[in-house]
Design goal:
Layout: H1 6-35, H2 38-68, H3 73-100, H4 106-110, H5 113-139, H6 155-166, H7 173-206, H8 210-216
Helix pairs in contact: 1-2, 1-3, 1-5, 2-3, 3-7, 5-6, 5-7, 6-7, 7-8
Amino acid sequence: MTGLPADLEELRLQVEVMAIRVQTAVARAVELVRTGDREIAAALIAGDDEIDAMHVSLTERCHETLLLRQPMASDLRLVVSVLRVLSSLERVGDLSLRIAKTIDDRGLVVDQQTVVTPLLGLADNVRARMDIVVGAWSAGSADGLARLDELESLDSFVEPLSERILELDGPGAARTAVAAITMTRSLDRIGDHAAIIAARLGYLLTADPNYLAEEVHP
């Protein structure tokens, strides 16, 4: 993304700052699943307000830009794309927060070896996806997005996880299942939003509408 007017370049950079905050939230959520560290959970919860505030501020700035500048062509594509990316980033922050709120039941989940192994695999996969898309946005290039195709599909983790969660039985099975499902669905949706951001970046850089179809069906 070169040759942008100064105000739009500043907007792009502010989105990058928010993306890095969200990337940190995802990393904390993954580490929380792996370790159960309550300090990490507390940091994740505390950081969510900042993500929400940035979302509101940058969304308002995009609306003002559309109203006052009435940008055309590539500049308009940037502002509209930023609005879409902001929405996904804010949602990823919320999903990370949802994982943090499972901290009290995390021990129940990790005691189930058949569940925790694919869950940790999913968590690492999703963290890698967010690292790739945030790096691509920061670089202003879609080149690195090809690495997404090298990762295992989300379904290769989610489907066996769903089966193994349904097989849980005994005392505490229901509570364990609820926590495991919350973690699994949250991580799965974070992966979906990473795909949406990647598709929107591809569209922003190329104006190819085929990317928009990928965004609708990540």
